[in-house]
Amino acid sequence: MGRQRKIAIGALAVGAGILSALAAGGLWGGLRVNLTPSYPLGIWRIQPIDREAVIGDLVFICPPGTPAFVLGVERGYLPAGLCPSGTAPLIKSVVAVAGQVVKVEDTIAIDGIELQNSGVRSTDAQGRPLSVFAGGQVPPGSVFLHSDFGGSYDSRYFGPLPADGILGLAAPVLVLAP
Q: Which member of 37, 54, 114, 168 has the greatest number of CB atoms within 10 A?
């Protein structure tokens, strides 16, 4: 066996070991790998939260199995995963909580204050139509989620989510800064 082939096999074995460790960490250590552009790429930890989510919290959340999330997986907006909806947990910022009023036009306004980096798109990157949340008051037990990334599939499109889907706070472990 040639030297280059031995090196390649060794590199593959190390890579497989690292991926296995990350997968095990994800199952037992609360670690998740983020490969989406909504937040920095890398390894994140789900930190337990023993209080209600508040504005500014960066959270991991399992979305419900609504048509918006089925569509999100079908179109590739969201990765498939182990949440009951069939998606992977999402990383999003809480920008509104129960009782706050969300207005959706070209941008999002919460209680009359425009949310920065909240442009609303009518189509996705492939020109397919996007449904946009109609706006209204965030219901009890729900949160409105956002990412500054313009192409993020967040509450602009699917509306508030039940807060009981929050798995915990999202804490970076090893991420690549944008």
A: 168
Identify each DSSP E strand in the chain by its residue range: 31-34, 42-47, 58-61, 90-97, 101-104, 108-110, 113-114, 136-137, 142-146, 161-162, 166-175
**CA 36 centroid distance within chain:** 8
| Domain hosting residue 60, numbered range | 31-175
Residue 125 falls inside a structural domain: yes
Overall pTM > 0.90 = no
Distance CA 94, CA 81 (A): 22
| CATH code of the domain in which 104 resides | 2.10.109.10
Start-to-end Cα distance in the chain? 41
100 domain residue, yes or no:
yes
Tens-digit pLDDT profile for residues 63-88: 999 999 999 999 999 998 989 888 99
